[in-house]
Amino acid sequence: MQPEPPLVEIRNATIWRRTTRVFDSLDLTIEQHERVAIVGPNGAGKTTLLKSINRELYPVVKDGSVFRILGRDTWNVWELRKHIGVVSQDLQQRYTPTTTALEVVVSGFFSSIGVHGVLAGRVDDDQVEAARGTLDELGVGDLAATPLKSMSTGQQRRCLLARALVHRPHTLILDEPTAGLDFAASFDYLERIRELVRAGRNVVIVTHHLNEIPPDVDRVILLKAGRIVADGRKRDVLTAERLSAIYEAPIRVAEIDGYYLAYPGKT
């Protein structure tokens, strides 16, 4: 039996975002069954890396460069979504306020923003049933016909999570998962993520808030200015010394029940 290919295999990759070269000679491997957090300050390259894995951005084509997802250099995006589901605040903001919860989830089958025009005619009963079932699993089934504008931000985020899960992918990529949520919604959402992890889902969490990292995630990749400055076990990477250095501010770190918290250090 051949070994499984990595979820992500990157070697000597150069990645631009518009006119900015974010990564140069990037090397990174994430295995399929790892649970990983990618941490770093604004501008570190977290979102660029996510968009590259998600095939919204592509690396420069050059000799000796590799950027493979699940062992393949090229993917049909619709097919890739069956393996990797993505949830981000950016994606959430692209939906119009009148889009219903059910339309959000069904659009996951087409990697689209909503299901309008020609796409609406391609939606079948099985897809609608699967979408309703996924909304039910996340506790928002009663909102199927409700437009986003009539929901709380936490309910909207659960609809986006349902969109990512409707394909039953093995891996979820979560970008700043609790951005815009209050304490109650944040804690509820993070617990739902933990339940997915316990059920066997792999997660890659992109964040600069340590409390968004579930205790079940043990590997942390620390980025600064387009470079990997640390990569290893959470307890070895999330230290006051490392975080103070990359954020260029005095930071202390506490661990409570498997969660890590950052707070101001001595000035």
The radius of gyration is 19 Å
Q: What low-confidence regions span 5 or more consecutive residues with pLDDT below 50?
A: none
Write down the overall mean pLDDT: 93
Q: What is the approximate shape?
A: globular
Could you explain how this protein is built, in words?
It is a single chain. The protein contains nine helices and eleven strands. The chain is an alpha/beta fold. The strands form three sheets. Strands 5-6-7-3-8-9 form a six-stranded mixed sheet, sandwiched between helices. A three-stranded antiparallel sheet has the order 2-1-4, with helices on one face. Strand 1 and strand 2 (20-30) form a beta hairpin. The longest helix has 16 residues, at 183-198. The radius of gyration is 19 Å and the shape is globular.
Précis, in short:
By secondary structure, the protein is of the alpha/beta class. Helices cover 29% and strands 26% of the residues. The chain has helices spanning 46-53, 77-80, 89-93, 101-106, 125-137, 153-165, 183-198, 234-237, 240-247; strands at residues 8-17, 20-30, 36-39, 66-69, 84-88, 171-175, 202-207, 219-224, 227-233, 251-256, 259-264.
Write the layout of secondary structure elements.
Layout lengths: L7 E10 L2 E11 L5 E4 L6 H8 L12 E4 L7 H4 L3 E5 H5 L7 H6 L18 H13 L15 H13 L5 E5 L7 H16 L3 E6 L11 E6 L2 E7 H4 L2 H8 L3 E6 L2 E6 L3
Parallel strand pairs: 3-7, 3-8, 5-6, 6-7
Antiparallel strand pairs: 1-2, 1-4, 8-9, 10-11
Question: Keyphrases for this structure?
Answer:
267 residues; alpha/beta; three-stranded antiparallel β-sheet; globular
